Amino acid sequence: MTNRRVVLVVGSGRSGTSTMAGTLRTLGLHVPQPEVVADATNPKGFGEPRWVVDLHTELLARSNVQVSDARPRAWLDTGTTSGDHATRERVAAWLEEQFAVADELVIKDPRASWFLGLWRAAAERCDATPSYVTMLRPVTEVVGSKQMYYGRMGAGSDQGAVTRTAAWVNMMLHTERATRGQQRAFVRYGDLLDDWTQAVFALGEAFDLTGVKTAMAVDIAEVHRFIDPSLRRVTMTWDDIGVPDRLRELADETWQALDAIADDDSTKNQEWCDRLRTAYAAQYADAEAFAHSTVVAQRRTAAAQARREAAEHAPQRSGADRVPHAVRAMVPPAARQKLRKAMGRERPQGSA
């Protein structure tokens, strides 16, 4: 059996994915370099390979999909974009370069869930075993954290909360479906902060990660310093986030289903997620139907704006240019020449 391992840390951003990736890195797994630089939103680092982030950003742009996209059909668009042979070869070639550095890799990026088929195919081409860790955090905390660190969306806070809540449901349910049948685990962010050793060492055994299973005392002590319970800086509830009741109920049940899978990854709980995914698609279709007039109006406004900008940038024609050619031809050549000279548009000698 191959010793090569690719652990993909997936799930919604602001769910503890950076904490999990940083923990695995500290215990010996390799995060491909260079990494995205830490900032105020994540002072202890993101644990994200820059190459991976750039790749996913490129593929999302080609798919016309956002990082947090609430549309169910967005999964079809990203799957189509990333399913071509050239892209899979490109990722496989990059993975081979990383395996020259280490046999056990950890790849984390909130965009990764959109391209799990791509990473699975690339890992298999490299004779590597892919594994998936989905981080779970209550939706209100995820949305609240995004509102706090990434800013408001749209004209008001409620609009941003609705969009982000819907995107969370879409992301989490499809991530569960995309990893089904694979080597996977669901880890609650709260459990990771309370006692990371139980969750992470269980992963080490389940995924057969040498780096985790053979971690030294100095590495374990370093993780204790790295994981700070105060990292859970946002603990909002539905009272702090205004979303429609139907969406709130669907988000709550999605959390309950995923929370159940964390303890029991059974067919029963997977089918529960299937029913929720169908219900979400139907609810989103209703929302699109209600908003159709708004979408049409926005398209008309954008088209009118484009026409105005095109008119402003169009080259201005002189009065002479607007005179029909047949009329200009009736003017004797000598007179035309005098007119051009007077207007500063005299042609060089020898021209017609």
UniProtKB/TrEMBL annotation:
Q: Its domain of life?
A: Bacteria
Q: Where is the composition biased (Basic and acidic residues)?
A: 306-324, 343-352
This chain belongs to which protein, by name? Answer: Sulfotransferase family protein
Q: Where are the transmembrane segments?
A: none
For this protein, the record's InterPro entries field holds:
P-loop_NTPase (IPR027417)
The ranges of region (Disordered) come to: 304-352
